[in-house]
């Protein structure tokens, strides 16, 4: 177990086997290589990906398929090799969430750059999908933004 100080969660104990490793960091945070994924709450569709290096750095994540049932993409062979993926059932996919101006109803998910995690070896990578119709700002709750008529 490793003790880690965080701004959001205070001091936490992290099981070394649950540390997510990003060999090249993540875009705009290339020096961040180790994270822990923590549930927001029990039975919540949200997670925090907390940096083990920077106490103030935590990303809000979700499993994109929970909100976007028709979301599909393929991981290129280079990424499969890089992450050592041998069993698709042990691969987890996350999308980073943005909360504009702190308004939960306007939350967006980045579907063009999913985080791919091989749970067998805890290697991960944020993959930018080439030639995709997805964007970095897909609304999680599109109906909540519309004004009610009546």
Tell me what you see in this structure.
The chain is mostly beta strands. It has one helix at residues 77-83; strands at 2-6, 10-14, 20-22, 34-39, 46-51, 58-62, 91-98, 108-109, 115-118, 123-126, 138-139. It has one domain (2-139): BH3618-like (Roll). The strands form 2 sheets. A 7-stranded mixed β-barrel has the order 3-4-5-6-7-9-10. It has a two-stranded antiparallel ribbon with strand order 1-2. Strand 5 and strand 6 form a beta hairpin. It is globular and about 40 Å long.
- CATH topology name: BH3618-like
Order of helices and strands: EEEEEEHEEEEE
Tally the structural domains.
1
Instruction: Give a count of the beta strands, DSSP E runs of length 2 or more.
Output: 11
CATH superfamily: BH3618-like
Portion in beta strands? 25-35%
What's the quaternary structure here?
single chain
Number of helices: 1
Alpha carbon gap, first and last residue: 57 Å
Neighbour order of strands in the largest sheet: 3-4-5-6-7-9-10
Main beta sheet strand tally, sense and closure: 7 strands, mixed, barrel
């Amino acid at each position: 177990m490793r003790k880690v100080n965080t701004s959001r969660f205070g001091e936490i104990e992290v099981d070394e086997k649950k540390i997510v490793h990003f060999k090249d960091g993540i875009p705009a945070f290339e020096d961040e290589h180790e994270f822990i994924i923590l549930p927001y709450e029990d039975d919540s569709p949200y997670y925090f990906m907390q940096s083990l290096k920077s106490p103030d750095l935590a990303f809000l994540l979700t499993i994109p398929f929970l909100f976007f049932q028709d979301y599909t993409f393929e991981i290129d062979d280079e990424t499969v090799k890089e992450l050592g993926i041998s069993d698709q059932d042990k691969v987890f996919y996350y999308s980073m969430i943005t909360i504009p101006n702190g308004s939960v109803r306007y939350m967006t998910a980045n579907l063009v750059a999913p985080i791919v995690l091989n749970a067998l070896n805890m290697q991960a990578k944020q993959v930018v999908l080439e030639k995709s119709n997805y964007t970095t700002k897909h609304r999680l709750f599109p109906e909540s933004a519309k004004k009610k008529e009546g």
